[in-house]
Design goal:
The complex is a heterodimer of chains A (290) and B (296). By secondary structure, chain A is mainly α. Chain A is built from 13 helices and no strands. Chain A has a domain of 189 residues: MetI-like fold (Orthogonal Bundle), CATH 1.10.3720.10. Chain B has a two-stranded antiparallel ribbon. In chain B, helix 13 runs antiparallel to helix 14. Classes of the chains: A mainly alpha (290), B mainly alpha (296). The interface between A and B is large, with 100 and 100 residues.
Chain lengths: 290, 296
């Protein structure tokens, strides 16, 4: 790789961001290769979903079908994907609301009380980050069954709240700690209690962190497969990922139908990605990206 | 006054602790207890002593699962680390075309593991799927395989799909890491006449060491929890070819109704995960990161 490969076009006097100076062909070529690897399966999934079941095997690998059909989407929608969508939405909204609410209160307490017990609690949460879901799933199954919540949407919520809380608390504590003490003091002098501190100081100031944890947890819950797999069995309480997996059996060789279902299941997140890519990617590496 | 204030604030911790204890930490501890029971989940459990544990380390299927899990772990690291690192450094550049490419690179991050499993198993890697069609169209029919149906290939196919699933996440970590490298280091190296390759090995790589450690820990401990993609694509088959430990746990507990034995496997998973992270933190001195970073 040669050092000097800057093109005349790049030698403008305008200040440029570091690294934006030169165009190197080798990275660009490798970058395009990876573009194919990363994007082609997604592209092929989408074009397949627009083909008829009879003709999809003869279809081009690269070009979209000449006569795209929506029949697969109609079939998937008639098959009740709307219900699974609503189920997933219900579980995701309730779970994320609970995670963020209890973690927000907890993080406030941890950030504001300089006590040993609170520090121990915080460390226990940190430990919780290391618990793999699978390690606890058998007792969770027993517990949810005993609570009479087996095979209900409500049974999916508490365990996912429990596994969402540690990272959420961690992120929020780090953020709330950075709020200057003087702000609290001046509000306390004005006679503000915890409710008002939370509502009109901590909540507005932690908004970026709250957006991050909402996105992170929403994706986790929306895409979760293990809990629905183990804690539900009836089709009417299936969430999207579980329903997709069961479509596989139902649709069998109808690959275009299956791909239409896959596409519909990822569509809401793709829309979110288009409108809020930065926040979404930030939320995904929450707690790891430093 | 402050005392009373602290007391009411402590109450705010209770909901978070309650959820965590009842539905995460408690179950983990209960799994240890259940691992000493004979229990099908329906009839009354009986005490099994160490039976499940001796079985876990003598049952050829479980031992095979452990072997597969270690293989998945090692190969995942070997595949994912260099690709993610290079892509991360590539995307750390602010060139416009790289920003555009990154939009597509990160797409797999949005997909549920089930969606990814289905895309690959039914349209990419199936016997008449895109990959084989492509190979046949370029005259390499002999390379076409039953990727997920051949026991000698299935594990590698699964590892590749898992890499496809997780490389974007690690790329994101490396991108963030690479963007934090002080630009002056590169300027200085350039003045000293270092070429791009030298700059990569002498500046980028050492500067990324903490990102490498983070990413490594996440890949290695993460490979103990790969479940969804494999479950959807192969169900652990053909035969036992892709039945890694989490699948063996699931099949034992929920398909064969052996909750005690399944719990023993689950506890092995948990211990392996914690031990692995502690070990990695230890040997990499990651715990001292802050002090080192300050001394920079």
């Amino acid at each position: 790789m040669a050092v000097e490969q800057s093109t005349p076009a790049n030698r403008s006097s305008k200040p440029v961001r570091p690294g934006a100076r030169r165009f190197r062909p080798l990275p660009a070529i490798l970058g395009l290769v990876w573009f194919l690897v990363a994007f082609y399966p997604v592209y092929y999934m989408f074009t397949t979903s627009l083909r008829t079941q009879a003709g999809f095997l003869e279809g081009s690998l690269w070009l979209p079908p000449v006569q795209p059909t929506l029949e697969n989407y109609v079939s998937v929608i008639n098959n009740g994907i709307g219900l699974y969508f609503v189920n997933s939405l219900f579980v995701t909204v309730l779970t994320v609301a609970l995670i963020v609410f209890v973690s927000f209160l907890g993080a406030y307490a941890i950030a504001r009380i300089p006590s040993r017990i609170v520090r121990i609690v915080f460390n226990v949460f940190l430990l919780g980050l290391a618990i793999p879901l699978q390690a606890a799933i058998i007792p969770i199954y027993v517990l949810i069954t005993r609570m009479g919540l087996y095979d209900t949407l409500f049974g999916l919520i508490p365990p996912q709240v429990a596994f969402g809380v540690p990272l959420t608390v961690l992120i929020l504590v780090n953020f709330i700690r950075d709020i200057p003490n003087e702000l609290y003091d001046s509000m306390v002098l004005d006679g503000a209690g915890h409710a008002r501190l939370l509502r009109s100081l901590v909540f507005p100031l932690s908004r970026p962190a709250l957006i991050t944890v909402v996105i992170y947890n929403a994706l986790q819950v929306w895409n979760n497969f293990l809990f629905p797999l183990i804690l539900t069995q009836s089709p009417n309480v299936a969430t999207l990922p579980l329903a997709l997996q069961q479509f596989q059996g139902q649709y069998g060789v109808n690959v275009p139908g299956l791909m239409a279902a896959v596409f519909l299941s990822v569509l809401p997140i793709i829309v979110l990605y288009v409108v809020a890519r930065r926040q979404l990617l930030g939320g995904l590496t929450a707690g790891f990206g430093k | 006054m402050t005392q009373r204030l602290n007391w009411t604030v402590s109450l705010m911790l209770i909901p978070a602790i309650a959820f965590f204890l009842v539905f995460a930490l408690g179950p983990l501890i209960a799994a240890v207890y259940i691992s000493f029971l004979n229990w099908d989940g329906v009839s009354a459990p009986t005490w099994a002593g160490l039976d499940n544990w001796t079985r876990a380390f003598s049952d050829p299927v479980t031992l095979h699962s452990i072997f597969l899990t270690v293989q998945v772990m090692a190969l995942s690291w070997i595949i994912q680390t260099p690709i993610s690192l290079l892509l991360g450094v590539f995307l750390a550049g602010y060139q416009r075309y790289r920003a555009v490419l990154s939009v597509f690179y990160f797409l797999p991050l949005l997909f549920s593991a089930v969606a990814i499993g289905l895309i690959w198993s039914s349209s990419m890697l199936s016997p008449d799927g895109a990959l084989n069609t492509l190979l046949r169209s370029v005259g390499a029919s002999s390379l076409a395989q039953n990727w997920l149906g051949d026991p000698s290939i299935a594990l590698y196919a699964v590892i590749v799909v898992i890499a496809w699933q997780f490389i974007p996440f690690h790329t994101l970590l490396y991108q963030a890491g690479a963007r934090q490298i002080p630009q002056v280091l590169y300027e200085a190296a350039r003045i000293d006449g270092a070429n791009a390759t030298q700059r990569f090995f002498h500046i980028t790589l050492p500067q990324l060491r903490y990102t490498i450690v983070t990413s490594t820990i996440l890949i290695l401990t993460g490979s103990l929890t790969y479940f969804d993609v494999i479950f959807v694509m192969t169900g652990g088959g053909p035969g036992f070819a892709t039945r890694i430990l989490p699948l063996q746990m699931y099949i034992t507990a929920f398909q064969n109704a052996q909750l005690g034995y399944g719990s023993a496997i689950a506890v092995i998973l948990a211990i392996a995960g914690v031990a692995l992270s502690l070990f990695l933190l230890r040997i990499t001195g990651f715990g001292e990161m802050e002090s080192q970073a300050e001394g920079l």
